[in-house]
Amino acid sequence: MVTSERGSAERDARLRLGRRMSATGVLAPDWRAAYDEVPRAAFLPPLMWPWDAEQRAHVPVSRSRDPATWHGYADSDAPIVTQWDDGEHTGLTPGRHATSTALGPSVVFGLLADLRLGEGVGRVLEVGTGTGWTTALLAHRLSVPAVTSFEIDESTAALARQRLRRFGLSPEVRVGDGLSGYRTQAPYDRIVSCCGLREVPYAWIEQSAPGALIVVPWGTNFCTADVLVALRVSGDGRSASGRFLRPIECTRARGQRWRGGARAEYLRETGAKAHRSTAWIGTDILDSDLLGSARFALGLRVPRCATAVAPTVQCDGGRPVWFHDTGGTGSWACLVLRPDGESTVFQYGERQLWHEVEAAYRWWQTAGRPGYGEFGLTVGAEGTRAWLGDEGRGWAVESGGAGGGGAGGGLRTDPHPPGGRP
Hints:
Layout: H1 5-24, H2 29-37, E1 47-52, E2 57-58, E3 61-62, H3 67-74, E4 80-84, E5 98-102, H4 105-114, E6 124-127, H5 133-141, E7 147-151, H6 154-166, E8 172-175, E9 188-193, H7 202-206, E10 208-218, E11 226-233, E12 239-248, H8 264-271, E13 275-278, H9 290-301, E14 305-309, E15 319-325, E16 332-337, E17 344-348, H10 353-366, E18 375-380, E19 383-388, E20 394-396
Helix pairs in contact: 1-2, 2-5, 9-10
């Protein structure tokens, strides 16, 4: 029985969200009991940083200082950052990189629906325990022995176990990145990743039963966005293939973050040697469409390339967009966007990265500007292939790995592009 006004408001907010998700089909009937009995609020830390749509920023919210606001966000559909900078961050202000998040309930239940948990599903491997809420929902729906979860951060894993025990749930939560799987509990009927990947580990396929589903957020280093893909393991267990579903925002697996790029001094050293030309794409690269399915498509077509877009005009009316080769050649390109004038491109190195981007953009246009769901992915022992329409129209996808390139350092959005200053 709810006795406090705050408790009644919390309950009402959760009920409204549940009804809304049920009406839109996101919350399926077979997941309703888990939603009702396992609230997200019970898995959130006292200090958290939910996304505020009006401020367009993550804002600090403390349960002890402002319990009403804390519970309002906890029972909302907002994504919430629960850790910054791999736990090294302190204080109220947001850190530099979100490294653990609680996804919005609509995203979580959409992800769970994609797993198609029905009769015959035995074991599930989850990678990225985080707060433990998704783990709890899985354990509630299935059974405790059926669920194994991996969390790379030891303190985060310990807190998740504590929260799970409050609900009488004790699935196996192991410390590790989970990218090698866990052979002890294999074979798995379902594998789900709650963190973004650049490469689907082949070990997951090897540890899956024939016909199993592997549901993961996947993307390239070309852009920060990930797209959910559901891969069905083949009957012979040697590969997994499936279509992309929809965009999803989540933190990236630590072992697959791109940490390379070019240092400022390297760019200064090579800037004078860069080839200068005019760009025909221009400001289209910043259009909402290109930041969506087209930008994702470019990442599929331009191998071993990471990008960084400056958030605002930074130099002489120009807005630089950087492209870096992630394969170690030290090649780079910089597109300097000038909305009211001619956009300029600088390129350096053995790869003409901007020419590759332009060719990929022409391909996307010629193909009819396909969206996310028209692309697919196949993963096998020989590597990863993307395809359009069907597997017969595929090509190899090369991520370039997570390490640094020839220039080393962090990915740059240098405010001074080549030629942008004396």
